């Protein structure tokens, strides 16, 4: 991302920079008015933020957007990994200050990765993994035979899933309870998140910190936990 921002720092003085906080995207862009000189820029920006890919990405990230627009080909929408705090418009010289502030801030990040049968929990402080816990739990696979046997195995599997989530909820309290993260990222089967929150008072009290972005995790272990930071801190860039 820093290389990308450096590439934007051209001598051109006709940039339009727009920062939009999460709660105001895309409405703030739709209402953009830049006057006669930059009116064409405003129209292009309004069209760009309404593209399906941008709308879907913004819904997934939930962090707002940074928009950099110039007549010589620099036309980008950036969805940062962490929320933009303010709405801001700059015309003339490129303004990357707000995005740099978002990227360079020191964050405490909670990570909860849960797949059926495995979990990995961690706290990253300024990019360093300072607390963690991993574990597994046995859950029966689906029983293919029909009749009573299938129903019996289905009931047993559901009980095993509930027991597994209770244990994961307890581990969250034990390992993460002493930390107050700026953001929490969940990874795994998205159907797990809601019942897991019901099993974890910690997640209930931190619900506003949970990112809408679900990390793609099929098995949770230490390696996946460590590697999750790269995905968490990745920005999404659209070029027009």
Outline the structure in words.
The structure is a single chain. By secondary structure, the protein is an alpha+beta fold. It has 2 domains: 2-104, Translation, Eukaryotic Peptide Chain Release Factor Subunit 1, Chain A; 108-232, 2-Layer Sandwich (Nucleotidyltransferase, domain 5), CATH 3.30.420. 42% of the residues lie in helices and 26% in strands. The protein has 9 helices and 10 strands. It has a 5-stranded antiparallel β-sheet, with helices on one face. A 5-stranded mixed β-sheet has the order 7-6-5-8-9, sandwiched between helices. The radius of gyration is 22 Å and the shape is elongated. The chain starts with a helix and ends with a strand. The model has no long low-confidence stretch (mean pLDDT 91).
């Amino acid at each position: 991302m820093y290389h990308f921002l450096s590439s934007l720092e051209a001598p051109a003085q006709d940039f339009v920079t727009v920062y939009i906080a999460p709660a105001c995207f895309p409405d703030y862009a739709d209402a953009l008015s830049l006057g006669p000189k930059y009116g064409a820029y405003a129209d292009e920006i309004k069209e760009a933020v309404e593209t399906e890919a941008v709308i879907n990405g913004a819904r997934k990230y939930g962090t707002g957007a940074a928009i950099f627009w110039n007549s010589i080909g620099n036309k980008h929408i950036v969805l940062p990994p962490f929320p933009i705090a303010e709405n801001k418009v700059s015309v003339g010289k490129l303004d990357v200050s707000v995005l740099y502030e978002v990227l360079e801030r020191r964050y405490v990040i909670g990570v909860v990765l849960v797949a059926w049968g495995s979990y990995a929990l961690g706290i990253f402080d300024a990019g360093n993994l300072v607390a963690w816990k991993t574990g597994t739990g046995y859950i029966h696979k689906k029983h293919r035979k029909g009749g009573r046997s299938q129903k019996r195995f289905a009931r047993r599997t559901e009980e095993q899933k509930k027991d597994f989530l209770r244990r994961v909820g307890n581990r969250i309290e034990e390992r993460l309870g002493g930390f107050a993260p700026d953001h929490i990222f969940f990874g795994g089967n998205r159907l797990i998140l809601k019942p897991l929150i019901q099993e974890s008072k910690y997640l209930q009290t931190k619900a506003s910190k949970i990112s809408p972005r679900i990390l793609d995790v099929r098995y949770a272990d230490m390696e996946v936990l460590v590697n999750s930071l790269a995905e968490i801190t990745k920005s999404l860039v659209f070029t027009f």
